[in-house]
């Protein structure tokens, strides 16, 4: 295991972390398999919008001042309790496949249970490495249809 990855901490994300979060977001989602084309300014706008949701919560994985990974989203009241919508999750590309994502998901699950959440929902592309990762973490395909319409 990478020495940096082996000596990290996981803490709640704060508003002051958004610029570093945007930089890592761009690094992750502009690379394979996504190739999205984010700029830091647009990523910061997206992430700031998420952070403005009253039930926003997220975790950052750190090695000193370096952000290595993150998991974030917000809660929604549903008929049988609170569910957490995991909007974004990622690990620095050079650390993927080394257990960092698993550690983040375990910490996220523990933190959400402590906050009274009953479930986590997320969306990702079928057949992607992310879908395979989430399946190993106990997520199941709900066979829901995600729709989009350009305006």
UniProtKB/TrEMBL annotation:
The keyword Cell cycle does not apply. Residues 8-151 form the N-acetyltransferase domain. The keyword Acyltransferase applies. It comes from the Bacteria. It holds the Pfam family Acetyltransf_7. Keywords: Acyltransferase, Transferase. GO terms for molecular function: acyltransferase activity. It is an enzyme of class 2 (transferase). InterPro entries: Acyl_CoA_acyltransferase, Bact_Acetyltransf, GNAT_dom. Its EC number is 2.3.1.-. SUPFAM superfamilies: Acyl-CoA N-acyltransferases (Nat). Gene3D superfamilies: 3.40.630.30. This is GNAT family N-acetyltransferase.
């Amino acid at each position: 295991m990478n020495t940096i990855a082996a000596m990290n901490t996981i803490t709640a994300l704060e508003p002051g972390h958004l610029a570093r979060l945007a930089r890592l977001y761009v690094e992750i989602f502009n690379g394979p398999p996504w190739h999205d084309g984010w700029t830091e300014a647009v990523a910061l706008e997206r992430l700031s919008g998420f952070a403005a949701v009253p039930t926003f919560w997220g975790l950052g994985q750190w090695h000193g001042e370096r952000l290595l990974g993150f998991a974030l989203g917000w809660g929604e009241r549903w008929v049988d309790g609170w569910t957490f919508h995991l909007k974004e999750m990622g690990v620095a590309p050079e650390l993927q496949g080394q257990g960092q994502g698993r550690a983040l998901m375990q910490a996220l699950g523990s933190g959400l249970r402590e906050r009274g959440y009953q479930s986590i929902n997320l969306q990702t592309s079928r057949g992607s490495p992310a879908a395979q990762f989430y399946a190993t973490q106990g997520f199941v395909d709900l066979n829901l249809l995600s729709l989009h319409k350009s305006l």
